Predict the structure.
Amino acid sequence: MTLSYRPGDSLAHRLDPRTKLAFQVAFAVAAFAHTNPRGLLALSLVPLGALRASGVSVRKSLREYRFVFPFLMAGPVVAAVTLGPPWVRVDAGVETAMASYRVVLVLLVSAAYLRTTPVRDSRAAIQHLVPGKVGRLLGTGVGFVFRFLPVLQADLRRIREASAARLGDERGLVARMRLVGIAGLSRALSRADRFALGLRARCFAWNPTLPRLSFSRGDLPVLAASLALLGWAFV
């Protein structure tokens, strides 16, 4: 799966996780600062470069995020339709569609980060950037999310496959969504209980020994690109 770390020797794998976090933040700021079509078109090249540097294909990344697309596509429709004249507001729909497109761009850059960064390195980077108990809490939470999200995603895929094997795909859309949603929620709660039990059994520590991080020459161009994106965002 794209939404989890895979060892490799790509350019993005060799970068310091703090550099990659800074680049993600800078890109997100630039994406939400430039809301016109020209700005979004220019920003569209950035995720393509990030995915190429991490060895991840755009098609696989989009497939991994397919569960959010119904909500992103429904947004412009809901924003455009009104209960009275003129019934359809094209400008509101276009504006919301561009907002949805910005979210897709940010998700693609995040896919490159998730594919190339171990969970322990992400936790170490956050605790370096945010010292003290707050940093430990944030680092632990991010680590849990990165480890738990691929498992939940795999559960949902197995639920859909099991439903399709039992001719569940012949039911209506609402019935299928209700079935998958209830089964997925039940599986998530069950896994959360087992996860908490596993943490207690392994004497979970809030302040473990984390890997040492160090910048290299390869980080300099990415940091410079992050500063350029931030500068462009405030121009």
About this structure: The first helix runs from residue 17 to 33. The chain has two domains: 1-118+213-235, 131-210. The chain has a mean pLDDT of 84.
